[in-house]
Specification:
Layout: H1 6-32, H2 51-56, H3 65-93, H4 101-113, H5 116-129, H6 139-161, H7 166-173, H8 178-207, H9 210-213, H10 222-229, H11 237-278
Helix pairs in contact: 1-11, 3-6, 3-8, 3-10, 4-6, 5-6, 6-8, 7-8, 8-11
């Protein structure tokens, strides 16, 4: 067996350092959240217990943790559904070139490079100057869509760019209406990509801070609430909250991946059954 070149070990070491840099802070917070009742915010740990997780579910002197969590959850679902629907509609619209399509495409992508805090400021000003109440479910919802929609549209553009139109033509030849073609042919084929768009929409909304900062109004979302608590809370309960939100995010990702796996398995089984039927 040939010895590995020195570059292999250098790149391996670089990759390990990158992983530590990427996940080290999260692991540190997770470890410190298990401090004992007399523990602080730094090492060394003073005992090991679940005290701060229990404390998290009790009435907090500072912060509206569960209220902000419910707002972030509802807002994330709103953004996710809207992102999926608009992305599919936009992808279908851009399948054919139309006047101004290139300009519209660049306008959509431009929101990704504009500083998020400026978008938050602009949306907040538009709402306040229009006499509309600045609220997380209205102005906050609109500001977050400027972040999630470009990602969803880019995914749909890539999907429809390699979509085989012969499936649609076959369905139309068999007498399917335009809606039946979309419902029974297009949507099942692009379903795994829709799950990816939904995951992008929810996770980007759930974690968004800058674009919600000036558009949430009087009620904070969870990222804003955590930021506010950092100036008042000096106990590991903040780390316990960070650990639970991280676990929740991982569970959401796991659910989406499980749904994608089940859909792919169902599609493979249907293809296998169809092949047996032809034989």
């Amino acid at each position: 067996m040939e010895p590995r070149p020195r570059s292999f070990y250098v790149l391996t070491a670089f990759f390990v350092v990158f992983l530590i840099f990427l996940y080290g802070p999260t692991l540190t917070i997770g470890i410190l959240s298990f401090q004992g009742p007399g523990g602080g915010l730094t090492f060394p740990m003073r005992g090991v217990s679940l005290h701060w997780f229990r404390d998290l579910f009790e009435q907090q002197a500072v912060g509206d943790i569960w209220g902000s969590f419910s707002r972030s959850l509802v807002l994330g679902l709103m953004v996710m559904i809207t992102t999926v629907v608009v992305s599919v509609m936009g992808g279908l619209a851009f399948r054919k070139r139309f006047a101004g399509s290139a300009l519209l495409f660049y306008l959509i992508i431009a929101s990704l490079v504009i500083p998020s805090i400026l978008i938050s400021l602009g949306v907040g000003l538009i709402w306040s100057q229009s006499g509309l109440p600045v609220h997380w479910s209205t102005s906050g919802f609109g500001a977050q869509l400027t972040w999630t929609l470009p990602f969803g549209l880019l995914i749909m553009f890539a999907v429809f760019n390699r979509f085989d139109k012969s499936f649609e033509e076959a369905a139309r030849d068999l007498g399917a209406s335009p809606w039946q073609v979309i419902r029974h042919v297009v949507l099942p084929i692009i379903a795994p990509s829709l799950i990816g768009v939904a995951l992008f929409g929810f996770t980007l909304s759930y974690d968004e801070f800058a674009r919600t900062l000036l558009t949430a109004g009087s009620y904070n979302t969870l990222p804003l609430e955590i930021f506010g608590m950092t100036t008042n809370v000096t106990t590991p309960v903040l780390f316990a909250l960070g650990t639970l939100t991280t676990v929740f995010s991982l569970l959401v990702i796991g659910v989406f991946l499980l749904v994608a796996w089940l859909m792919n398995r169902k599609r493979a089984r249907a293809g296998s059954d169809a092949g047996k039927g032809m034989v």
